Amino acid sequence: MNCPFCRYADTKVVDSRLGKEGNNVRRRRECPSCERRFTTYERVEEILPWVIKKDGRREPFDRTKIISGMQRACEKRPVSVEEIEALVDQLERRFQECGDKEIAASWIGEAVMDILHDVDEVAYVRFASVYRQFKDINEFMSELNDLLKNSH
């Protein structure tokens, strides 16, 4: 880290502490050249990919849309808001770790369905019925039959 006062290139860390909210590190540094002290903050850069919609539009990733959809699917089900937020945190990490700068909205929808399938089957069916836009009762029944076959 360069000294902000004399530009010396090799400052030393005197003290490190976790930031107030726990999402950064506060470091007290000292320059061996000019002997002045200064503080730096270090945090993880969170870069989420852009979402490519069905019609080709691109928009920034928005976790509130995922939370909203999952909350609607989990309404009156034994799934807490905290659990939904933790699941969305898992999804965000997965999307960050994939390393892609853009991801298809369909990939996000399928990932949400995979998680809901494991968490609550009723919520899964609710989400799938909206996401997949079943055209008739036969498509809906086909999905239910698949769910029943895989749960045994």
From TrEMBL:
Key words of the record: ATP-binding, DNA-binding, Metal-binding, Nucleotide-binding, Repressor, Transcription, Transcription regulation, Zinc, Zinc-finger
One Pfam family in the UniProt entry: Zn_ribbon_NrdR
Biological process, per Gene Ontology: negative regulation of DNA-templated transcription
unnamed zinc finger segments: 3-34
Cofactor remark from the record: Binds 1 zinc ion.
The ATP-cone domain, residue ranges: 49-139
Molecular function GO labels: ATP binding; DNA binding; zinc ion binding
Cofactor(s) named in the record: Zn(2+)
Family from the record: Belongs to the NrdR family.
NCBIfam families xref list: transcriptional regulator NrdR
Function: Negatively regulates transcription of bacterial ribonucleotide reductase nrd genes and operons by binding to NrdR-boxes.
Protein's recorded name: Transcriptional repressor NrdR
Organism: Desulfuromusa kysingii
